Amino acid sequence: MGLNINVKIKPNSMSEHVQIPNNINELVASHQELTLFFNAMDEVFFSVDMINFKVIQISSGCEKLYGHKASEFLKNNRLWFELIHPDDKHLLDGEEEVLQRGEKVSKQYRIIRKDKSVRWVENKVLPCLDETGRLIRVDGITRDITESKEAEEKHMQSDAWYRQIVESAQEGIWTIDENEKTNFVNKKMADILGYSADEMMGKELYDFMDEEGKAYAIACMERRRRGSKENLDIRYKTKAGEDVWANISANPIIDETGKYKGALAMVTDITQRKLDEEAIKKSEANLRTIFDNTDSSYILFDADMKILSFNALADRYSIQQNGKQLEVGTHARDYFTAERWSLIKEMLDRVAKGETVSYEVSYQRGDRTTQWNNVRWLAVKDKNNQNWGFILANKDITETKTAALERERITADLIQHIKDLEQFTYIISHNLRAPVANIIGLSEMLMEEDLDQAEKQEVVERISLSIKNMDTVIQDLNQILQARELTNEKKEKIYFLDLVNAIKTSINNTVVGKKIQFNCQFDVDSIFSIRSYLYSILYNLSSNSIKYCKAGVSPVITIESHQLKNKIELRFKDNGKGIDLLKNASELFGLYKRFDTTTEGKGMGLFMVKTQVEAIGGTIKVKSKLGEGTEFVMLFAV
């Protein structure tokens, strides 16, 4: 017996997009296909009547997973619980309470199959509540996760074993007694010095150094006897008489009485690094000449991203952009934010593989002008083609970038002017044609001799009305032209809260009458812009929110500001009637476009909002659904 899916279609409950089968045969066929689909899957799909605590549906996959047929589950309502491993049954404690709250449940536990084998399963259950909130049914799916659980366990064991191997093999380990004689070395330590472990046992620490190194080590060991821990670089002599540099992390060994019993050192061979550093020092004089006579800044990092060298221009850029001077030996991450450093590391991985990464960045100078830089990251290879460092090149391209942006701005302005001309032509040809035609026609009527005085008066009144209509259109055109031309007003620091308070004062009578609530959350409290434009934008949006509020619902207007990198985001949201964007999105900001005729208006508000937002260099987008309010999202450059 497999999963039996019952399909019920409730009249008038489906979306207009749902296609209902033309006849019962199609419905039955669809039902059979769906049933076959679920029964063919390894996962177990089930439904349980929570009123009668009875399994009402279960797919055929139960036999493969549990070893029991679907009919057994339908007959024995406790069977599924009886199959849960005794040690895991507690995992289901409190499950029904969670389902009663309408929350889904997901659990992993073991089951004991009919053949007594143990399997891991994952069980996900979704509650179904009636209109009173009572749990009446649960639907769920159970799948076998035994293989993934076993793989996870093996992975954990393998990972622990792998870490143990790596941790013991990466560094040399060397311990000496209180007399500076070797009492333990691992294979890695012996390999570093070219000895076997047995050959090193019993030898003094100083037997592996020249006279200069011995004098340095004696001073270090005196500090060790006093309990000092150190990290230092020491030069040793190998069995073959060659120099080998090692980084030592040394710690004293103190017994429970506080007596010095020797020292432990973790030793890393840094010979190649030392050779690389020496090569860098030798070439630094030549690089310095190049560095300080170029229009680009350069910073040279070692393989660990510590600064090795930089030119004067790089130091000047760092002070300008980060407020910090560059220092040799400091790590690159000290000059970047955590977010930026994460991106830098990704780029360095690409650079280390041979790729040159180049990009453009901008920042605001103290005088509020923008500087543009072209940034390049390059890898530095040694003679064996191994990475031993990186170069950060930074060039000021402000002049070139400004010219390019100006060309783009001019092009955008030309396109906008063309659109404006087309729009004005449309307004003149459509909105002025009617009043002009009326005036001409009515004027001709005045020339007729058979008109009596009353008729002439009516004609004159109609001419006057047409002239007023024409004057209104001309005033609208003038208002649009003024909005598109930036005024002589200077930009200033504008506090959003002050602006909102001024708007609330302006519409005070309306606010009191309709109990309008303003909710403001300004993460960024101010913006550098033109006050009159920003006031007009927020005033028009507020006026629209009040005008098109839902009947019987107190209007709530929410205004927020957020910092987004080099932009300020201003969000304006209301709980009004909303707009059908599927139908009206393309004409939303159009001139004389109205979408709600139940309220008086000309269709100028949103057109002026968009015009003024763009006039001060911003963009505006809208999110809305009928009956759910409207949200406008505006972005302004900092």
TrEMBL record:
A single BP term in Gene Ontology: regulation of DNA-templated transcription
Reaction catalysis annotation: ATP + protein L-histidine = ADP + protein N-phospho-L-histidine
Pfam families reported in the protein's UniProt record: HATPase_c, HisKA, PAS, PAS_3, PAS_9
Single GO MF descriptor: phosphorelay sensor kinase activity
Origin species: Mucilaginibacter gotjawali
Keyword Kinase found: yes
PROSITE patterns per UniProt: HIS_KIN, PAC, PAS
SMART domains referenced in this protein's UniProt entry, alphabetically: HATPase_c, HisKA, PAC, PAS
Listed EC numbers: 2.7.13.3
Domain Histidine kinase span(s) in chain numbering: 427-638
Source taxonomy: Bacteria, Pseudomonadati, Bacteroidota, Sphingobacteriia, Sphingobacteriales
Limits of the PAS domain: 30-89, 158-212
Domain PAC per the UniProt entry, residue ranges: 105-157, 230-282, 357-409
InterPro entries: HATPase_C_sf (IPR036890), HATPase_dom (IPR003594), His_kinase_dom (IPR005467), HisK_dim/P_dom (IPR003661), HisK_dim/P_sf (IPR036097), PAC (IPR001610), PAS (IPR000014), PAS-assoc_C (IPR000700)
Alphabetical UniProt keywords: Kinase, Phosphoprotein, Transferase
Domain of life: Bacteria
PANTHER family the UniProt entry points to: PAC DOMAIN-CONTAINING PROTEIN, PHYTOCHROME-LIKE PROTEIN CPH1
Listed name of the protein: histidine kinase
